[in-house]
Design goal:
By secondary structure, this protein is an all-alpha fold. It has one domain. It is about 80% helix and about 0% strand. The chain has a two-stranded antiparallel ribbon. Helix 4 packs antiparallel against helix 6. The termini are far apart.
Length: about 350
């Protein structure tokens, strides 16, 4: 069952977000209109706002279809969701800005080391303890993907890029730390509260959308009016925006499913390894060549992911076995209690007969 859930998470996240990436490129690079009125859509906070509201709608109906009510959501949880939405909103600008000030190897190392801050923040903020094999998985996957990407031939343009500045590395570090705080807090919420992924997806997106509305309504920010004018002049973009948002919302359903069932560490293994598997797929489809070091890196990543899945399955089997034993003990106690009641009933009847 665990293996099926893992496969379901991998396929769902990859298929949705590979399609989402294509749609994102389409929205951001397509020139809408005829030769005289050609324009490109450049209003990405507006785009993210639409996606957040679309995701909250999908999450709401997903919860209703699966009979998950919202009664268990209290005020302290709402505050936590609002904090997560705010952190998610401020993380992206740090990430985007850092790209202007770091070189290609630093970018790759930054993107592939996301597992480390998630684990680190879980330890620092919530005193969470990890099994020894989980540390091994993080090291294997991070080191394997980093080596694979760094050993990949790069263009002359990337090689000639400016070296990383301390400012760029600082921005990237802040982005990674915020990601770590978000992941570890999500794990903490699921472990302490009986809620489902649909609940978190709904509230995080609705709060995120509201925060972006507040930013867009700022009188010094013309993005909202410009985006609405663009949509009025080029109505074709509306279809692309809605498809992009719907695909992202469906992808989030799989993300929160994986988060609820396996935790943020495993979710980050899936998301971090997405580009790795994309490159690997192109090797088999287009007969690209990998060097010996890259094949070793592939082996490390697969070994790390395999170890994580195997150990999770082993832990679940152990839990199932202990639950079966507890149920047997409970049934024994119930049988003994029933027999005792029956015996006591017979004794009482005998005593009553003797008195008569």
């Amino acid at each position: 069952m665990t293996l099926v859930k893992v496969g379901f998470s991998f396929i769902g996240i990859y298929s949705c977000f590979l399609t989402w990436g294509v749609l994102q490129e389409r929205v951001s690079t397509t020139s809408y209109g005829d030769k005289e009125t050609k324009q490109q859509f450049k209003y990405f906070i507006f785009l993210n706002m639409i996606q957040s509201f679309m995701a909250s709608i999908v999450a709401f109906f997903y919860a209703k279809i699966t009979n998950q009510n919202f009664e268990k959501i209290n005020s302290s949880l709402l505050i936590k969701f609002l904090q997560l939405a705010f952190l998610g909103a401020i993380a992206s600008p740090f990430g985007y800005e850092s790209l202007k000030h770091i070189d290609y190897p630093t970018l790759i190392l930054g993107k592939t080391s996301k597992l480390v801050p998630v684990m680190l923040m879980s330890i620092v903020l919530y005193r969470k303890r990890f099994a020894f094999y989980q540390y091994a998985v993080v090291i294997l996957v991070t080191f394997g993907i980093s080596c694979f990407m760094l050993l990949q031939p790069t263009s002359e343009k990337k090689k000639a890029a400016e070296p990383s500045s301390l400012y760029g590395i600082a921005l990237l570090s802040i982005n990674l730390i915020i990601d770590g705080v978000i992941g570890s807090t999500q794990d903490q919420i699921f472990s302490k509260n009986k809620i489902k992924g649909q609940h978190m997806m709904f509230f995080m997106n609705i709060f995120s959308g509201i925060l972006m509305v507040c930013w867009l309504l700022n009188p010094f920010n013309p993005e909202l009016s410009n985006a609405l004018t663009f949509c009025k002049i080029h109505p074709n973009v509306i279809i692309d925006i809605l498809l992009f948002s719907l695909c992202g919302a469906l992808g989030q359903c799989f993300i929160f499913f994986a988060l609820h069932n396996f935790g943020s560490l495993f979710l980050n293994i899936i998301t971090v390894s997405r580009k790795f598997f994309t490159v690997l797929l192109s090797v088999f489809l287009f007969d690209h060549k990998l060097n010996f070091g890259q094949w070793l890196a592939v082996g490390l990543v697969f070994f790390g992911i395999g170890l994580e899945v195997y150990m999770k399955q082993k832990v679940i089997k152990k839990l199932d076995k202990s639950m079966e034993e507890e149920n047997r003990e409970l049934e024994k106690l119930i049988d003994e209690k029933t027999k005792r009641k029956q015996t006591n009933g017979v004794i009482d009847k005998v005593k009553k007969d003797k008195t008569l």
